[in-house]
Amino acid sequence: MQSESARMSSAAEAKFRIDRPNSRPRAVKVIALDAASERVVKELAAGPWQNATFLTASAFSGAPAAPRRGEPFSMGGWLNDLAGRTKDLVDEVNSADLVVMVATAGENAAAAALIGEACNVKYVMTTALVLGGATSSDETLSKMLAQLRPHAMMLVISSADEYIKDMLTALRA
Question: How many domains does the chain have?
Answer without folding.
Answer: 1
